[in-house]
Amino acid sequence: MSDLSAFPITQRWPAEHPERLQLYSLPTPNGVKVSILLEETGLPYEAHLVDFAKDDQKSPEFESLNPNGKIPAILDPNGPGGQPLALFESGAILLYLAEKTGQFLPSDPVARLQAIQWVMFQMGGVGPMFGQVGFFVKFAGKDFEDKRPRDRYVAEAKRLLGVMDAALAGKTWFLGDAYTIADISMLGWVNGLVNFYGAGELVGFDAFANVKAWLARGLARPAVQRGLHIPARP
After folding, report:
1. Domain GST N-terminal, which positions (predicted)?
2. Domains and CATH numbers, the chain
């Protein structure tokens, strides 16, 4: 049996199946990237809820795994060389799991780099900008008389959606017929922008027909539907 006792995070979230990959997360747009990919790969894992309402992400046990105090994070008992691996940052986790399983990341060098570039696009642009739009629309926007900060993020979100829409023209997925971590990295964010934050009308989502069709294809995947709700909220 795998021994994970050296990792303080297991004191707060004990592993029932220490031989499996341990996921510490919450079903947010960032968190579901990893749960969707795990569901898609079929890799055995155990999910642990990091409850923001309880400030779990700020606990010493969680920060021992991710000093940045953000979800998701993983602990793989069977990492490189058969040794346990602790890893944080959703983009890094996507790359690791894709390489570990040999799935959803092309083996062709050019296609592989193209998939990675879209993951970086999501990490640097889509996530931060869509998240700011969501903050203003769902949580705080109504409290600010000056709408310029909100409108700045809305304008950038529209620009990013335009980039995505052009890239998806005539394609099923970002890399054509191949569904990859490029798509997985963005599905939760686009779904969240429209269906959780309720910002679809504000950003003119219906005008981005290619993105809208791509999102529908992604949401139709059973693994995506499961991953969007893992770990289950209390």
Report:
1. 18-105
2. 9-104 (3.40.30.10), 109-225 (1.20.1050.10)
